[in-house]
Amino acid sequence: MILIGLTSYVPSFLEALLGVSPLESGLTLALLTIGWPISASQSGRLYLRLGFRITAMIGTTIVVVGCVGLLLAAGSPSLVSVGASCLVVGLGLGLTASPTLIAAQSSVEWGERGVVTGANLFARSMGSAVGVAVLGAIVNASLRGLDGDTHPALLKVAVHDVVVALLVVAVLTVVAAAAMPRDRDRDRAATP
Description:
Blueprint: H1 2-18, H2 22-50, H3 52-75, H4 79-106, H5 113-143, H6 155-178, H7 184-190
Helix pairs in contact: 1-2, 1-4, 1-5, 1-6, 2-3, 2-4, 3-4, 3-6, 4-5, 5-6
């Protein structure tokens, strides 16, 4: 939901609030897609050292920090503040996506890994689809004036409401990461 929410609404909001070009807003959002592969490439080293659960908790916490940055930037947005927040969110998502998928795969036997991988990716797709619909409903509700007309002045309110929703989802993701079971292989190695 966080990824699709940001890619769906950040460019539109930057263009409407700051009057920037689509190229500028797209480049600002591109920092999200730059941060993701940077941290994803290092997540393997991290989860081999710390475990899946701790790596996912670090990643989701970084996502929360990025969403807080977006919330602070929503009041007076600038390309730099929004871009930096998107980069931080991307770094967090990169540390979250790979370890959670591999943790799910390694929790089952070899013959069941395809099913687990498919279920994981399906859940991500459903979360994105439902998430962007919920965010769209939030935007529509925020932009609707008391007289039923849409008021451009309410765009800042809509941005704020969307970012608050993303922050709530990010915090819930930290809780979900904390609920992950500890790594079985580490527990077996620790027991005599």
